[in-house]
Amino acid sequence: MEKLKSVIPETLKRKIAESTVNDLHSTCSSLLHFFQNLPLFHQMVRDLTDPEMALCGKNKEAAMEAKAKGNECFAKGDYSNALRFYSQALRMAPPDVEDKEKNLLATLYVNRASSLHKLGFFLESLRDCSRALILSPGYAKAWFRRAKANTSLSNYQDAINDLTVSLKIETSLSGKRQIESELSTLLDQSRQRSSAVEKPNDDSSGGRLVVDSFGPEYVYKYKIMSNFKWNQCVSRPTKGRGMTTSTDIPLASLIHKEDPYAAIILKNCRETHCAFCFNELPADTVPCMSCSTPLYCSLKCQLQAGGQEFSKYKSKYEFPEDLSDVLEQYIRTVTSPGILSSKVEHAEHRHECLGMHWPAVLPSDVILAGRILVKHIQQQGPGAVQSKYHGILDLCQNYGQLSSDSKLEFHVYSVILLCCLQQFLAARLPLNPEITSEIIVLLSQIRVNSMAVVCMKYSDGKQPLDYDATSSVEQVQVAQAVYSRGSFFNHSCQPNAHAYFLSRTLFIRATEHVAAGSELELSYGPQVGQWDCGERRKFLEDRYSFICQCSGCAQVNLSDLVHSGYHCNRPNCFGVVVDSCVAKYEKEKLKHVKGPNSLQDMLNDDDISRVASRLFEQTDYSCCFGPGYCLSCGSLCDLEASQKKSPKLRFALKEHLKLCISLIHFTVSLQDALASCETPTTLIMDALKSIDILRTLLHPFNKRIAEVEDNIAQAFCSIGEIQVAMDHCQASIKILEKLYGEDHIVIGNELIKLSSIQLSMGQKNTADNTKRMVAIFSRYYGSHADIMFPYLRYLKREAGKLV
User: Fold this and answer.
1) In the chain, how many H helices and how many E strands?
2) How far is Cα 796 from Cα 756, in angstroms, rounded to an integer?
3) Within 13 Å of residue 130, how many CA atoms lie on the same side as its CB?
4) Are 712 and 687 in contact (CB under 8 A)?
5) H-type alpha helices, 390-463
6) Positions of the TPR repeats (predicted)?
7) What is the tens place of the pLDDT at every residue in 366-416?
8) Is residue 659's pLDDT more than 70?
9) Are 531 and 563 a contacting pair, CB within 8 Å?
10) How many beta carbons lie within 10 A of that of residue 78, not counting itself?
């Protein structure tokens, strides 16, 4: 694509760079005229749309080669690599090809089922056997393997049925003997089990702890607002459209739920997450039936995304007539796919899996624009009059604020996308300036309105309890989606609502009591406590083209003052010293303050009075924010000037801040660092000396100190010094509470770490921290907390044993 952009004339580039939305018809017309006479452009379109040149098509030879490698690994007992090669073969195998008079896909699913069973993935093995039987109902080996999986899962009656069917259709004498032996053994075991007296299960919750098991005083009662009818969109002069409430909303209430209008998985997650539901892929992945690009977690997701039905390639087989009615019904149930394509509302991937290369190489937001266009056209119906596609979702756009490079990029990608989509909808999408300009606007709408679909990266509660495992709770972006109604929620760096995702579905929950008439605001990423005001506003302006004026960016708050603040060099002074960048934004906030009484009302915070008491004493507030001056005692602590006067201090500050940053990265590769170090204790002691020096330079509430405290806590856990680890973990939490607030979700994540440490020490007060942790997660996720954080259930259960 860069090569194509480089040949565009400078005059046309300049015209595009200076264009507004009103100029798009002219710029698109000029670009189309230039491309139509450019051989490079036509060659690029052919490369992207010619199935013969695509790398994502099906390939029987490649599938057979991978199958042979899988067989070789299985014979050697290398089941992990066998699983990998069989999955690779399934991805490449055409659905209508036979291998030794059996459907190739069915054979590969049975082979992979064997590998899965050997590796202990019994449920996954069962599902693969069922997939093979949907394609080849008369496949005796598949029924036999399915019986093995059911036996391992204690589904004994199903296993008996599977063996009975396998015995009926097996043709070889040796095969029949093996099945009869297995069936006889299983029947004997079944009779023994039926004669045994089973003990009742006293756990009415089925082993699952409910969220309010610690009592109502710690858990918020969630309220789902019926149909969200109170949720209305209003327009404000300074912020445009936004969502407000016409009634009071209780804390932790679910205020919005929505499936995406269109969504696309990110390229870096194609191998790890389902291309439709965005959940993590299991070991028994399901590839697209028409191309080799996406992977799915199930046949249902594959079909919902627009894939072909398995039953389309189902081989005919006549079962023996002497089967019982019960067994015939069992066979029909097992060999039916369970979902039909006629039930799929919109097949978002279908226009992409025609054996062409472009869906695999174009950027995700461009593919997303294509999905929106195709869905809109299909919803209109074949006889509908062409409409302006950028009005589909009635979204705002920021084309006028885009950089010159982005405008040029959008122009080129719009033309390319339109040419690619013509292979599917040529009659409905003519190659003209009108459609091209509308795609450009749609791309700019996606840029500022799409949401990052995230999932939680956390440790399974079944794993052994250790600090390194529990410290990995984080949000990971896996997809990009447009939500028609969710896009109307405005941003705040101190939001009163929290957005999260279960699969593709967006949920928004109130994180505080919201009074009637108030605006409902989310965070578009940055929040108070995470970054300082300058960093937040720069990110939002660069990414979303607006200057944030939320309460967090318009009013003085403790977090912005101390987030990257320095320590006053005067003894016994707790004041904070800010640099020139922070001072700039804090001065701007004070322009809106009129008189000391107004400031006193706004800064009703004891901690602010400790770190910035001069704000309460001055009438000219701007004079307090001179770079290098302590906001409490007013003494000059100009670090830059001090460094110039003292090379030693300059070197110390530079080196210890460098070490501080390296310690922050230390978390990611902690185990590797300790494993490669002959004396890990020495490494940790060096870190302790550094943090002592950092405390003399940075303010006690500086976020970097919290991060280093957390890293050191993990390091002490790794060498078994649990008590010291707990002390450093608590020190980190105390700082983060000042930056984020005591009930923020970040504190909940940190309490998971603390509770894990306390639990390993057998401390009874683990229950108190766990109760608080549950309350915070309930505030943000309601009844979904246990679903999104399975480790919570483990902590609650184990902490309850210590009470």
Assistant:
1) 34, 16
2) 11
3) 22
4) yes
5) 404-425, 433-449
6) 63-96
7) 999 999 999 988 888 765 555 555 567 788 888 999 999 999 999 999 999
8) no
9) yes
10) 15
If one counts every other C-beta atom within 10 angstroms of the C-beta of residue 607, the result is 16
Neighbours of 409 (CB within 10 A): 20
**Strand residues in 635-745 grouped as ranges (E):** none
What backbone phi and psi angles, to 5 degrees, belong to 137?
-60, -25
* Paired tokens of 122: 């019994």
Encoding tokens for residue 6? 């480089």
Q: pLDDT tens digits, residue range 275-323?
A: 999 999 999 999 998 888 899 999 999 989 988 887 788 888 888 888 8
Q: Assign residue 221 a region: left if phi > 0, alpha if psi is -120 to 50, beta otherwise?
A: beta
Give per-residue pLDDT as tens, 557-568: 999 999 999 989
- Distance between alpha carbon 464 and the CA centroid of its chain, in Å? 25
C-alpha distances in angstroms, 335 versus 15, 97, 127, 228? 61, 19, 11, 41
What token pair was written down for 271?
């191998």
Residue 212 pLDDT grade (very low, low, confident, very high; cuts 50, 70, 90): very low
Strand partners, 502: 505
The Cα 222–Cα 210 span in angstroms is 14
Report the relative pairing of strands 240-245 and 519-522 from DSSP bridges. Answer: antiparallel
What are 716's two structure tokens? 């002490």
- Angstrom CA distances, 278 to 274, 288, 301, 454, 784, stand at 5, 15, 10, 9, 17
Residue 20: closest CA among 469, 317, 407, 328: 407
Cα distances from 173 to residues 137, 176, 180, in angstroms, run: 20, 5, 11
Supply 594's token pair. Answer: 């009129």
- Ramachandran angles phi, psi of 197, nearest 5°: -90, 120
The DSSP annotation for 704-735 comes to HHHHHHHHHHHHHHHTT-HHHHHHHHHHHHHH
**What residues pair up with 263 in beta bridges, in sequence order?**
481
Q: Which helix (H) or strand (E) holds 651?
A: helix 647-666
Q: Is 616 within 8 Å of 609 (Cβ atoms)? A: yes
Q: Give the pLDDT of residue 603.
A: 56
Q: Which residue has the tokens 């693969």?
A: 128
Torsion angle (degrees, nearest 10) of CA 684, 689, 691, 697: -160
Residue with tokens 């490449």: 92
| Residue 128 buriedness (CB in 10 A; 0-12 / 13-18 / 19+) | buried
d(CA 734, CA 738): 7
CA pair distance 587, 580, nearest whole angstrom:
10
- Token digits of residue 526: 């940055």
DSSP 286: E
Element (H, E) at 330: helix 325-334
pLDDT range class, residue 589, cuts 50, 70, 90: confident
C-alpha span between 538 and 372 (Å, rounded): 30
Instruction: Classify burial at 575, counting beta carbons within 10 Å of its beta carbon; exposed 0-12, middle 13-18, buried 19 or more.
Output: buried
Residue 491 sits at φ, ψ, to 5 deg, of -95, 150
User: Which residue type, as a one-letter code, is found at position 185?
Assistant: T
- Residue 60 CB neighbour total at 10 angstroms: 14
Q: From CA 457, how far away is CA 118, in angstroms rounded?
A: 27
Mean pLDDT, residues 77-105? 93
Mean pLDDT, residues 105-115 taken together = 97
Strand order in the sheet with 231-236: 231-236, 240-245, 519-522, 490-491
pLDDT in tens, 771-795: 999 999 999 999 898 888 877 888 8
What distance in Å separates the CA atoms of residue 152 and residue 719, rounded to the nearest whole number? 39
Q: What tokens does 165 get?
A: 């069917």
In DSSP notation, 175-232 reads HHHHHHHHHHHHHHHHHHHHHSPPPP---TTTT---TTTT-TTTSPPP-B-GGGTTEE
pLDDT of residue 586: 87
